[in-house]
Write a structure and sequence with these properties.
The structure is a single chain. With 243 residues, this protein is of the alpha/beta class. It has one domain: Rossmann fold. 40% of the residues lie in helices and 9% in strands. The chain contains seven helices and five strands. Strands 1-3-2-4-5 form a five-stranded parallel β-sheet, with helices on both faces. The radius of gyration is 18 Å and the shape is globular. The N and C termini lie far apart (45 Å). The relative contact order is 0.17. It binds zinc ion. Zinc ion binds next to helix 2. The site of zinc ion has 6 residues, from helix 2. Its cofactor is Zn(2+). Keywords: Hydrolase, Metal-binding, Zinc. It comes from Mycolicibacterium arenosum.
Length: 243
């Protein structure tokens, strides 16, 4: 047998760029970035949440002990609240939950455990229900948010700063406008009924005009360190979330 046949893949690495034979006799753990394709104001790309989840996942994998593979991102989610804007593609909570359950059942045939790193708040119900079911079925699945304390809700200071840090060329810096900065709890009744468009015609909840790359670097580091700590501790709560 070719000695390269059992050559170990260099971890952390990417699932999409690996071969089956690199994974033989291995039981890697898997990180799956989970994002969305939805309007993010006039200034941020539609795949903002996917980019953040992917960048956080890559950075986290580099901090964790053991063998971690990063899966290709799941770039569609439950974005019904952003349906009023062209470019948004939402598969909804039920379809996303099914996708995540079947993903987990299949991947756990060879992975030792898996964690969905979620970059979009609208995915919360689906990822919590899916990981809870996978755990009931005996699979070691969990999820972690990319959130930080004090973040604004959507396409505001927080996300715009992080994008200025990780994807500066894709932020339409001159097109930033302040959105509705009222607390999410206050907006929720109108938001539930009419989506983001009903409370912010530009699709921004927060203020992107205060964003900066330096702030983005600080926020991103906090996201990565918090997420890495959750994954290293591996204590899923009763919703499958790592605490
Ligand atoms: Zn977002």
């Amino acid at each position: 047998m070719n000695s390269a046949y059992h050559r170990r893949v260099a971890f952390p690495s990417e699932l999409g760029n690996s071969t089956t034979r690199q994974l033989l006799d291995q039981t890697p753990a898997l990180i799956i970035p989970l994002g969305a394709t939805e309007q993010h104001g006039p200034h941020l790309p539609l795949d903002t949440d996917t980019r953040i989840a992917t960048a956080v996942s890559s950075a986290v994998a580099g901090l964790l002990p053991g063998d971690w593979l990063i899966a290709p991102a799941i770039g569609y989610g439950a974005s019904g609240e952003h349906e009023g804007f062209p470019g948004t593609v939402s598969i909804g909570t039920a379809a996303l939950r099914e996708l995540l359950v079947e993903f987990g059942r299949s991947a756990c045939n060879w992975a030792s455990r898996l964690v969905f790193v979620n970059g979009h708040g609208g995915n919360l119900d689906a990822v919590a229900e899916a990981t809870t079911l996978l755990r009931v079925e005996g699979r070691d699945a969990a999820w972690s948010p990319c959130s930080v304390a004090g973040a604004d809700a959507h396409a505001g200071h927080t996300e715009t700063s992080v994008l200025l840090h990780i994807s500066p060329n894709d932020v339409r810096i001159d097109e930033r406008v302040p959105g509705n900065a009222a607390p999410l709890a206050e907006l929720m009744p109108r938001l539930r009924h009419g989506g983001v468009a009903a409370v912010s015609p530009v699709g921004v909840l927060g203020d992107p005009t205060t964003a900066s790359a330096a702030e983005g670097a600080r926020i991103f580091t906090e996201m990565v360190e918090t997420c890495a700590r959750r994954i290293a501790a591996w204590t899923p709560n009763n919703r499958g979330m790592l605490e």
